[in-house]
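Bumping my old thread because nobody answered last time. Still need a sequence for this structure:
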């Protein structure tokens, strides 16, 4: 199963009048999460070494992939939504 890009799913799932807002929110939250992750790495490494730091950071992408697959499997094209 090929998982489409996050932006594709956001534009198809969001209400038509709120697509721009949804994409802006997605981008802002992505930058926030990235900033927090970058700031956390030195603290995680100091607390338990690189295995702990990378192990905890790997949870986010794994959850993201699972969520995207779930969302992609239940989506419908906007033209068929009423």
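Sorry it took so long. Here it is:
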């Amino acid at each position: 199963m090929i998982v489409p890009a996050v932006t594709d799913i956001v534009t198809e799932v969001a209400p038509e009048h709120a697509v721009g807002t949804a994409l802006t929110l997605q981008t802002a939250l992505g930058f926030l999460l990235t900033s927090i992750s970058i700031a956390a790495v030195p603290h995680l490494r100091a607390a338990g070494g690189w295995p702990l730091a990378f192990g905890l950071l790997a949870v986010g992408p794994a959850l993201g992939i699972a969520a995207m697959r779930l969302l992609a499997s239940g989506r419908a094209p906007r033209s068929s939504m009423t």
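Residues 1-8+34-75 form one domain. Let me know if any region looks off to you.
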